[in-house]
């Protein structure tokens, strides 16, 4: 692989820097960030270096550990009565005040969770020549492996590699999935899909709606799975694992290892999401904030780069079925049952296509796209 230019000082001026060529060389290596680390890189290549202002975001850059996101016990979530009512209340309060919470006793065994993280790790750590067969920027492929889906559009790349796969409603042919993680991708996807439906039902109840309301809107019809691999970074203060963003889907269920690094923005300070063994993290996406008329919050979050690694995570994004193009043209707006004279609509109606087009036009990461759709 062509050696990538490295600068230890992000303010250093390099008159011969050709960013386009550096990006192309990195992309064509098909070995991602892990390939740089395996090659012994000691400094962060310039394509990954973020401007100091973007790294600090104007907020405290050190995650606070004295406060933490809520942890909700889902033991007995399939029941009814006062226990379920209390569970829905807790889910609603966490979605309203935090936009992020962790769930335990959610019905997915620790063995399955561990096997999923191990499967993601095994994919990224297998022989390069095997892995390269899946390297592509063609989103129509069954499984996509690359580094930074927006590599050529972003102002700076993030220090991570990823695999992407649409797992529902039309599961892929198992033979099209990597052998090293095929079985666990299928098993975990099936189990996390069921959990996503259960959580969406609790969210509906927390809003005072019938249990199937959000599900019938198509919020959890599609499941898009992303497996991230964050190698150790030689200069973590110069880049990010994933920069500040909100999720553009309805809801995300995140499985992370015990490495830490995930932070959310809460009351104008970055808060560490401390790993809890056996837990799955739930975060509200932009579209849930829109249809709940700002009641449930889609909050900024990021992953800091670290000098230890790798960090492994698996995000399950729930959204309408994008395999049916008509779903992109479906109109979403504040749910009518939630609108009153005291609580008028905050957002105008929009299609997913228009929302995503706007977000992509302004840059996928950084600021939320919701303000553009306010009335």
Task: Provide a compact summary of the structure.
With 375 residues, this protein is of the alpha+beta class. It has helices at residues 19-29, 32-38, 52-56, 82-97, 110-125, 128-131, 182-206, 213-216, 286-291, 352-362; strands spanning 60-64, 71-73, 100-104, 143-146, 161-168, 222-230, 240-245, 251-256, 262-266, 269-272, 280-284, 301-304, 311-319, 331-332, 350-351.
Describe the structure.
There is one protein chain. This protein has one domain (52-373): B-lactam Antibiotic, Isopenicillin N Synthase, Chain (Jelly Rolls), CATH 2.60.120. 28% of the residues lie in helices and 21% in strands. It is built from 10 helices and 15 strands. The protein has helices spanning 19-29, 32-38, 52-56, 82-97, 110-125, 128-131, 182-206, 213-216, 286-291, 352-362; strands at residues 60-64, 71-73, 100-104, 143-146, 161-168, 222-230, 240-245, 251-256, 262-266, 269-272, 280-284, 301-304, 311-319, 331-332, 350-351. An 8-stranded mixed β-sheet has the order 2-3-11-8-13-6-5-4. α4 packs across α7. The protein is globular, with a radius of gyration of 20 Å. This is 1-aminocyclopropane-1-carboxylate oxidase homolog 1-like. Belongs to the iron/ascorbate-dependent oxidoreductase family. GO terms for molecular function: dioxygenase activity; metal ion binding. Keywords: Iron, Metal-binding, Oxidoreductase.
């Amino acid at each position: 692989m062509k050696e990538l230019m490295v600068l230890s000082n992000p303010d250093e001026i390099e008159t011969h820097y050709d960013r386009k060529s550096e990006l192309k060389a990195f992309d064509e290596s098909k070995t991602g960030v892990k390939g740089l680390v395996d090659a012994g890189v000691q400094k962060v290549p310039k394509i990954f270096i973020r401007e100091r202002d973007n790294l600090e975001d104007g907020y405290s850059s050190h995650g606070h550990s004295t406060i933490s996101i809520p942890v909700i016990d889902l033991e007995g979530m399939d029941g009814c009565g006062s226990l379920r009512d209390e569970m829905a209340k807790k889910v609603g309060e966490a979605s309203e005040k935090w936009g992020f919470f962790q769930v335990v006793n959610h019905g997915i065994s620790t063995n399955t969770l561990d096997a999923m993280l191990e499967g993601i790790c095994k994919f990224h750590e297998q022989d390069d020549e095997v892995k390269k067969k899946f390297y592509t920027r063609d989103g129509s492929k069954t499984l996509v492996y690359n580094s930074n889906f927006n590599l050529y559009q972003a102002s700076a790349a993030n220090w991570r590699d990823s695999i992407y796969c649409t797992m529902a409603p039309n599961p892929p042919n198992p033979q099209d999935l990597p052998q090293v993680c095929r079985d666990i991708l299928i098993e975990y996807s099936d189990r996390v899909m069921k959990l996503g439906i259960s959580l969406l039902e609790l969210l509906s109840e927390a809003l005072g709606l019938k249990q199937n309301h959000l599900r019938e809107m198509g919020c959890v019809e599609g499941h898009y799975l992303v497996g991230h691999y964050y190698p150790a970074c030689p200069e973590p203060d110069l880049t990010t694992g994933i920069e500040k963003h909100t999720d553009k889907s309805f809801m995300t269920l995140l499985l992370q290892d015990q490495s830490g690094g995930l932070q959310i923005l809460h009351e104008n300070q970055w808060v560490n999401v401390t790993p809890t063994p056996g837990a799955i993290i739930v975060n509200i996406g932009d579209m849930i904030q829109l249809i709940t008329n700002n009641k449930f919050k889609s909050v900024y979050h990021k992953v800091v780069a670290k000098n230890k690694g790798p960090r492994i995570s698996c995000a399950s994004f729930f959204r309408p079925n994008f395999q049916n193009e008509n779903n992109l043209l479906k109109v979403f707006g504040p749910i009518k049952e939630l609108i009153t004279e005291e609580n008028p609509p905050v957002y105008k109606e929009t299609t997913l296509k228009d929302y995503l087009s706007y977000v992509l036009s302004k840059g996928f990461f950084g600021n939320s796209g919701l303000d553009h759709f306010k009335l």
